[in-house]
Specification:
Largest sheet: 5 strands, mixed
Radius of gyration: 20 Å
Order of helices and strands: HEEEEEEEEEEEEEEEE
Distance between the termini: 66 Å
Number of domains: 2
Strand order of the largest sheet: 5-11-10-7-8
CATH class of the largest domain: Mainly Beta
CATH topology of the largest domain: Immunoglobulin-like
Bound molecules: copper (II) ion
Strand content: 35-45%
Number of helices: 1
Shape: globular
Length: 207
């Protein structure tokens, strides 16, 4: 058996794939046609996807009774740090895809501040965040099994880089959705691909 030419062929195929890696820009609107910010966007390729590495630590701040950002996407194994910037204590409770909780002293506390940290393992899906002390506080961390992901900005857009050309499915997730949103098929070209998609509801504005 001639292994070497086979290896060379595989390598060439891999390099060709890498060369075809493209940028996909997704524009998300709500059911009323307005840009939808804070939507988690996960793109899965039909071809075998690499296992995504853990991200560098992601920080979620508790500020003015809000989690900032309200929606984050991480990959399994990513360490998430919660930091309290308010002048009063907060609490973090994670539920759904992961379960954890801790209290975080105020930023003005005399005691040295200890941020809460958790490493999110495991499968695909959202972890809901809340605070026992302030029921108005809510946030989400979506754990993505795909390396191709993002969160829409204030214009309802997100750009995902390094996506191999070929067929893919795009899944949207919004914390206020009541049912899973149907995935949207996209053919990723060698050049930039733009995909307009819409939520099937109108999210309430974040206070
Ligand atoms: Cu709180």
């Amino acid at each position: 058996m001639r292994i070497l030419p086979l290896m060379a062929g595989l390598l060439a195929a891999l390099l060709a794939d890498a060369a075809l890696a493209a940028t996909v820009t997704i524009h998300v609107k709500d059911a009323a046609g307005q840009p939808a910010p804070g939507v988690a966007v996960i793109l899965r390729t039909a071809a075998l996807m690499p296992v995504p590495p853990a991200l560098p630590m992601v920080e979620i701040v508790q500020e003015r009774l809000r989690f900032v950002p309200a929606v984050a996407v991480v990959t399994p194994g990513t360490r998430v740090r919660f930091t309290n910037r308010d002048a009063f204590d907060h609490h973090v409770k994670g539920s759904g895809g992961a379960t954890f909780e801790f209290r975080i002293a105020s930023a003005t506390s005399a005691a040295p501040q200890r941020p809460g940290e958790v490493v999110l393992q495991g499968g695909n899906g959202p972890v809901a965040l809340g605070c026992h002390l302030h029921s108005v506080m809510s946030g989400s961390v979506y754990v993505s099994d795909s390396p191709y992901h993002g969160v829409t900005d204030a214009q309802g857009q997100v750009q995902i880089n390094g996506v191999p050309a070929g067929d893919a499915m795009v899944t949207l997730w919004h914390p206020q959705q009541l049912v899973e949103l149907p995935a949207v098929a996209v053919r990723v070209g060698a050049d930039a691909t733009v995909l307009p998609v819409a939520l099937n509801f109108v999210p309430r504005r974040r206070r």
